[in-house]
Design brief:
By secondary structure, the protein is α+β, with helices and mostly antiparallel strands. Helix content is 24%, strand content 38%. The strands form 3 sheets. Strands 2-1-6 form a 3-stranded antiparallel β-sheet. It has a 3-stranded antiparallel β-sheet with strand order 3-4-5, with no helix packed on it. A 3-stranded antiparallel β-sheet has the order 7-8-9, with helices on one face. The protein is elongated and about 45 Å long.
């Protein structure tokens, strides 16, 4: 799982999230960044409204939280979701000097990112792709 810090950077750079069951997230800026939630059809699910998506906390009497606007959360995409977002630019994930190396090809130009954690390496690659850095 990527760090909340990198997830925030991705969100702020323009990564959009359409919540689906199985997705993990944190509730932003409510002193809950350490509490990772998982969307589920049973406990935490998405309610689509004309004004946007609302994430509902069903049956969680121990929480003083009924629902939260999706825009007030930070999505923690999985390695698979990050790789899917890289699309055709993704070439490979391999061990590298700094841990894991993600190789991309963007408009005929090779680039890469490295990090000790594979998910963070994917996240950094996606951030590079979104920001053009």
């Amino acid at each position: 799982m990527i760090s909340v810090g990198l997830a925030r950077r991705l969100r702020d750079a323009g990564l959009r999230w359409d919540p689906v069951p199985g997705d993990r997230f944190v509730v932003a800026d409510r002193d809950m960044d350490d509490e990772v939630f998982t969307l589920s059809d049973m406990t935490v699910d998405v309610h689509k409204h004309a004004t946007g998506s609302v994430i509902g906390f069903n049956g969680t009497v121990e929480w003083a939280l009924d629902s939260v606007e999706a825009q007030d959360t930070v999505w923690l995409p999985s390695e698979t979701q990050l790789r899917e977002r890289l699309g055709a630019t993704f070439r490979r994930l391999s061990p590298g000097p700094a841990g894991w190396r993600v190789d991309l090809e963007v408009v005929g130009r090779a680039t890469h990112t490295e990090h000790p954690d594979a998910a963070e390496a994917y996240g950094l690659a996606l951030l590079r792709l979104i920001t053009g850095d």
